[in-house]
């Protein structure tokens, strides 16, 4: 199930933001016993031209928008490292 979530996150981010680099890592093991356990804890490192000229909050909003319904329903926590190419 988690591998499917990682692949779905990759797919959605790729379709929306056309990244030149993208890593999505399941970090659920770091949250054993946590209230959101089983719902999904992930880290995404994404480098995309879509982030050029945007501040960190705007970049995170683009990521959340790309993930749509996954945020409240399939992802409990998401750490994001969002950069434009060359940063």
From TrEMBL:
GO terms for biological process: iron-sulfur cluster assembly. It comes from Luteibacter anthropi. Pfam families: BolA. Belongs to the BolA/IbaG family. This is BolA family transcriptional regulator.
